[in-house]
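Researcher: We plan to redesign the surface later, but first we want a full-length starting point. Tokens attached.
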């Protein structure tokens, strides 16, 4: 059965409801009340009818183009709210409930930024949502529980013609390098990127998407909503907390659904390898998994290798991992690899902006996972100073052009012009991503972010590279839980490392741990550290996607607001 040729997600939903009314569209695995996961299916017909009811309610209360926030849990109700908002011609703003730990300020900031006066939620969240809105002096007069809207109001919806170039939703950035901004994703953007994604990952009809990624994030939204709607795919949906509590649940869902595609950041693969025991592995059949996408920046080779080794006996194919690159400003996906390719580069040359592949005698090379080739779009590596394409093998800023590149930032015309309205050799509209990369062997390799670069004594240092060195300097440091950043003082720019103490670490001399970090970073990078701060487990600030926020870490450090175990 061929996919319908339509240009917006609500129309695709209606088409699949007409073609496959009684087929399951969403299979919700709910672990809140049942440790084994209570499974609730939603058919294409029910999906369409419930989204139409939401659209009918909104149509009589909200003007077209007005923002409508979604503050709901990770259930089919979230999908219904999102598609209902799009169908009504309003601007959906996918956010999260106020009980997400550590992100209340970001939620309030996002709501103020978008100016939403209407909030879609559910009965189990409405009290907390209303209290949060009132406490932050945000509008609370139009809060509706989408799970209480009767399907009978759906037929009263008057169809709206959706302009492909109109804003469909605002994708708020995670805030890893600053305050979150609302990326304006149009109806045409999301359909184009869904087409690029299903092509790259070969998501044909019969494929199943499995996801615990938050629906308020670009990758979660693409995996559980946009890509399934494009090709009529069934999606298995679970809550992020269900994965964190027991990562085996995610793998069990993959095992139970042959022909599955899923995605996760690098830390999740390493987390599975360390937390899933042999008894749980014995119940898994992972030979039917088609693709496991990893869009971390950068993708961590060690995480992939640990996952492969841990689940090889479960039938996991060695080439199932698909390292990728993307960002919200390009809807999500930009490049994808067919399988992991790791290249070793001379660390000093790479810091100087040249990708020189390491030879057998190169001491401590920097290993980088390739992120593949563009998916139906153009990618160039550009010299930020000259704004001209870099020669092969040179590191520069990644620029992207294609139908998936978003319209800009909500309410920020100057930032929009700087990021989105760039000309390259007199050609088109290019997005300057702020990410650094290099093309080697026709594949894009991500090396870092311009804003994150640590520049000391005229030399560039990639923070993630320094962080990996610090984390492996001593057994008392928790893996994948460090932040390296630059601070400016009277003597110029210098580097600081914050690192979390390992949860199960035995007693160690903190001075010895700090000394080990200093020595390792100095030896490998030639970088003297101004400060090394050890902090308790789970105390470093994170983005809502779980990544360490270097910007927030730097702010807390400068404000003296860290709960330090040791500093030196």
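Model: Full-length starting sequence:
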């Amino acid at each position: 059965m061929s996919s319908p040729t339509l240009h917006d997600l609500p129309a695709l939903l209606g088409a699949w409801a007409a073609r496959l009314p009684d087929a399951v569209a969403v299979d919700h695995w709910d672990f809140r009340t049942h440790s084994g996961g209570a499974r609730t299916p939603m058919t294409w017909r029910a999906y369409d009818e419930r989204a139409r009811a939401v659209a009918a309610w909104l149509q009589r209360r909200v003007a077209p183009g007005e923002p409508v926030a979604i503050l709901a849990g990770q259930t089919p109700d979230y999908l219904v709210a999102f598609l209902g908002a799009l169908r009504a011609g309003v601007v959906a703003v996918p956010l999260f409930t106020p009980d997400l730990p550590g992100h209340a300020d970001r939620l309030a900031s996002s709501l103020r930024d978008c100016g939403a006066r209407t909030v879609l939620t559910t009965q189990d969240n409405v009290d907390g949502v209303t209290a949060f809105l009132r406490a932050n002096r945000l509008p609370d007069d139009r809060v509706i529980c989408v799970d209480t809207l009767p399907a009978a109001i759906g037929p009263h919806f008057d169809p709206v013609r959706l302009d492909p170039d109109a804003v469909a939703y605002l994708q708020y950035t995670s805030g890893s390098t600053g305050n979150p901004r609302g990326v304006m994703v149009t109806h045409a953007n999301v359909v184009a990127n869904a087409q690029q994604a299903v092509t790259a990952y070969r998501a044909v009809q019969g494929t199943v998407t499995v996801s615990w990624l938050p629906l308020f994030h670009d990758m979660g939204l693409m995996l559980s909503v946009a890509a399934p709607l494009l090709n009529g795919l069934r999606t298995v949906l679970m809550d992020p907390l269900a994965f964190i509590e027991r990562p085996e649940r995610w793998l069990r869902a993959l095992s139970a659904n042959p022909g599955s595609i899923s995605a996760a950041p690098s830390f999740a693969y390493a987390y599975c390898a360390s937390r899933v025991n042999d008894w749980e592995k014995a119940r898994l059949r992972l030979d039917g998994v088609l693709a496991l996408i990893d869009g971390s920046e950068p993708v961590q080779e060690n995480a992939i290798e640990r996952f492969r080794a841990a689940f090889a006996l479960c039938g996991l194919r060695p080439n199932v991992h698909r390292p990728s690159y993307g960002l919200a400003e390009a809807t999500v996906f930009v490049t994808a690899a067919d399988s992991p390719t790791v290249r070793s580069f001379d660390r000093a040359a790479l810091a100087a902006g040249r990708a020189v592949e390491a030879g057998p005698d190169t001491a401590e090379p920097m290993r980088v996972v390739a992120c593949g080739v563009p998916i139906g779009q153009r990618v160039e590596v550009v010299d930020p100073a000259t704004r001209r394409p870099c020669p092969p093998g040179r590191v520069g800023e990644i620029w992207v052009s294609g139908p998936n590149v978003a319209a800009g930032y909500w309410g920020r015309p100057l930032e929009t012009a700087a990021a989105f309205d760039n000309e390259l050799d007199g050609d088109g509209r290019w997005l300057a991503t702020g990410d650094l990369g290099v093309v080697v062997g026709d594949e894009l390799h991500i090396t870092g972010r311009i804003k994150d670069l640590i520049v000391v004594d005229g030399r560039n240092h990639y923070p993630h590279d320094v962080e990996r060195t610090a984390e492996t300097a001593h057994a008392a440091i928790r893996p994948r839980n460090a932040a390296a950043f630059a601070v400016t003082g009277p003597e110029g720019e210098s580097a600081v490392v914050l690192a979390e103490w390992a949860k199960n670490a035995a007693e160690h001399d903190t001075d010895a741990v700090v000394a080990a970090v200093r020595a390792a970073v100095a030896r490998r990078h030639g970088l003297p550290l101004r400060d090394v701060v050890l902090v308790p487990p789970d105390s470093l600030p994170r983005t809502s996607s779980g990544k360490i926020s270097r910007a927030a870490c730097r702010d807390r450090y400068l404000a003296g607001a860290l709960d330090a175990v040791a500093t030196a």
